[in-house]
DNA sequence: TTTACTGCAAACCCTTTGCAATTCG
DNA sequence: CGAATTGCAAAGGGTTTGCAGTAAA
């Protein structure tokens, strides 16, 4: 687990390196995800910002643009499932996959070394240069059964 | 691999059992997927029907409704990735996961027993009643490297 | 000063819905 | 006949874009 400040620093570095501008809005969006212990949609992030920072007059379009940018530079990742559209999380956590309750939407993270190894092997066998993977197990969680 | 006619028969059975009506449109949509060797979006299916069956005056809404129905009764499945929205395939093939080329969009199917077993175990450990899973490995295929 | 970035609103795409007409049972 | 299904067009939801104004370098 990486510290929030370090990630913010990294954002500053990336922005500078690309000759872009550092703005409060991008920082706020990243910060929300750094402190969320859940996967959030663009709209949820927007609403959170509206609530927690009523002074910052951010627009939903800016949230989308920031999310796109942050995902592009790999500071955050997204998964898409169901009808909720994309859900984002910060990319500072260790790699993991997702168990998703199709009833209440709850997401549990997990990680299995053997599965990871086998994925690499499968990609190699098919002559794919693997860049990432995404694995979701869908089911009904204990409290929804 | 199951024969197309058998699946069509199954559709007839399901429809009758549910007290619904058997329509040519649902059959056409299912048939397109049974003969596709690729994963298709709703719009691709719609366009295919328009081309191959110019006489059938089907509407895009009907395609969506048919796809929803067919997925509900488990004759087809869908995966969502990238910006293309849901892609459908018939459910008569044996279970498999997907290797996806992020450059050309090519999809390679694979299956690994050990991964399947481990998924079941992980779900059990987290007290999830597993209903399905979806696993995609993203990378660059041989011909795109 | 220059250029990227922003907020707003309109546009956009894909999907769903309301409805009158149609078809199946 | 009665109910499910259809095609059409309009509505919907989520996301993107054009633009004039704003703010970072």
From TrEMBL, chains A, B:
Which species expresses this protein natively?
Arcobacter arenosus
Q: Which residues bind Zn(2+)?
A: 101, 104, 141, 144
Keyword Metal-binding attributed: yes
Q: What is this protein called?
A: Ferric uptake regulation protein
Q: Name the Gene Ontology biological process terms.
A: negative regulation of DNA-templated transcription; negative regulation of siderophore biosynthetic process
Which annotated residues bind Fe cation? 95, 97, 116, 133
Q: Where in the cell is it found?
A: Cytoplasm
The free-text function statement in the UniProt record for this protein reads: Acts as a global negative controlling element, employing Fe(2+) as a cofactor to bind the operator of the repressed genes.
């Amino acid at each position: 687990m990486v510290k929030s400040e370090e990630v913010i620093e990294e954002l500053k570095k990336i922005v500078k390196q690309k000759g872009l501008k550092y703005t409060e809005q991008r920082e706020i969006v990243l910060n929300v995800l750094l402190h969320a212990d859940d996967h959030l949609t663009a709209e949820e992030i927007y609403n959170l910002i509206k609530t927690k920072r009523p002074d910052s007059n951010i627009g939903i379009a800016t949230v989308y643009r920031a999310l796109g940018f942050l995902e592009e530079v790999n500071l955050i990742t997204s998964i898409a499932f169901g009808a909720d559209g994309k859900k984002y999380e910060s990319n500072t956590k260790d790699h993991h996959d997702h168990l998703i309750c199709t009833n209440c939407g709850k997401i549990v993270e997990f990680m299995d070394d053997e599965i990871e190894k086998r994925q690499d092997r499968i990609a190699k066998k098919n002559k794919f240069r693997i860049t990432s993977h995404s694995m979701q197990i869908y089911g009904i969680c204990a409290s929804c059964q």
